[in-house]
Amino acid sequence: MLTKRIIPCLDIKNGRTVKGVNFLELRDAGDPVELAKIYAEEGADELVFLDITATNEKRKTLVELVEKVAEAINIPFTVGGGISTVEDVSVLLAAGADKVSVNSAAVRNPQIIKEMADEFGSQCIVVAVDSRKVGDRNIVHTHGGSKPTELETEAWIQKAVKLGAGEILLTSMDHDGTKAGFANELLSKISSLVNVPVIASGGAGNMQHFCDTFTNGKSDAALAASIFHFKEIGIPELKTFLKNKNIPTRI
Amino acid sequence: MKVAIIKYNAGNIKSVMLALKRLGIEGNLTDNPDEILAADRVIFPGQGEAKSAMKYLRERGLDKVIQSIENPFLGICLGLQLLCSHSEEGDTECLGIFNAKVKKFPDDLKVPHMGWNIGSLSEDIIFQGIKSPAYFYFVHSYYAEVCTQTISQTEYMLPFSNVLKKDNFYAIQPHPEKSAEAGQQFLKNFLFEL
Predict the structure, then answer these.
(1) Complex ipTM, two decimals?
(2) Mean pLDDT for chain A?
(3) B35, B70, B77, B88: which one is catalytic?
(4) A198 to chain B: nearest residue by CA?
C-alpha cells in the first residue's frame, strides 16, 4: 500500500537552516547537509529545501548545496525558492534534485508550469501555493506569503494541475506557525478537486495533527519544519504513532 | 569493477551515479557499445517517455547492444519498462527481454503512483539482507504486468511487477538509488553478489 509521506522542510538562508514563525523572526536551526543526513537516517520519506529569501532578494537557490545534499542522502528531495525559468530547473535537476517547486514565478506566468512539465515531466514539477483567508475566500499570496494576488486558491491549483503540476505543496498562512493543526478543510477540498498528490504544510504542532491531515485532510504527505528541527517531535516516534493509528507508514 | 551506465535521452542519471559513489563505485556514463559490452555490470536507468527513448536507442544501435549483454544488467524505472515486450506509452515496441506488457494505471487513484510502497521479497539473491517489509520509492504512471519473470510484486490499484528477472537481466520499477536502506542493499547485491 502506498504510504503517507512525512517531509521535514529545511528553510535555507545563507546556506543555513532557519525557520520563522509566520515567516518572520528567523532562528538558526543548523547545517542543512548534516540535518538532511539525520532526517534520512531517522526515516523521513522525503525532504524539501526552500531558499526562503530567494524571491525577495532575487537570489538563485544554491546549486552547491543541492550537490552536497544529493551526494549525502538516499531519499528524494525537492528544491524551491526563486525558481522562475526552465534553465533554473535544468541546473537544479542536473545538480541532483529530484523535484523543484515553483511558486511566485508560476503565479506571474502560469505557462512556465507547462514549459517545465513538457521539458522535464510533471513528476518533478511541484507547484507551491501559499494561501491565506481573506474574508471567506482562500487567496493565493506570493513573495513568501507577503503579497496577496487576485487568485482564489482552489481555482489556481486546478489551473496549475491542468498546466502540468505533478504535485501541490499547499501552505496555509493562517495555520503556519500556530501549531494548531493543518488546514484540513481546505486540503481535503483541494484533494477532491485534483488528481495529483497534495502535501499539507503549515500548522503542525503535535503527532495527532499529522494523523488528522492524512484522514480528515486527505493529504498524501505532510510537511513541517521547526517541530522537527527543535526536536519537539522525533520522526521515528511520529511514524510509530501513525502506524498505531492505522495510517499506512514506512517504518 | 567496471560499471557502465547507459547514456541516452532519459533523465535521472545523476542520482544513480551518486548512489554508486556511496557504495565506492565510480560509474562510467557511456553510449559506447564496446565500453558497455566490456563492463562487469551495466545499469540502464531513466525517467522519461518510452517512444522517444526507444527511437533514440534504435538509431544508435543500442537496442541490439543491450539484447546481447551477458554480464549482470539492471534496468531501473523506465529502464524496466523498455526491457518489456511492449508499452502502451506511445504504442511502443520495446526490447522484449521480459514478456510483460507495460500498461497505464487506470485513473481511479492519483497517477503517477508516487511515494513509498512495499515490494514483496523472494529467495532471489538480489533481495539478500533486505528487511521485510521492504519499502521502495516509486514515481511512475505506467506499470509492467505481473508475468512468469516477476520476482517481486507491488500493489497500487492492482498488482504489478516490482522486480523482473531473466537470466542475467534484472529490472526494478522503483528507484533503488532513492529508496534508503532497502534500495542501497538492492544495489549492493546487484554489484557485489551476482
Answers:
(1) 0.91
(2) 90
(3) B77
(4) B110
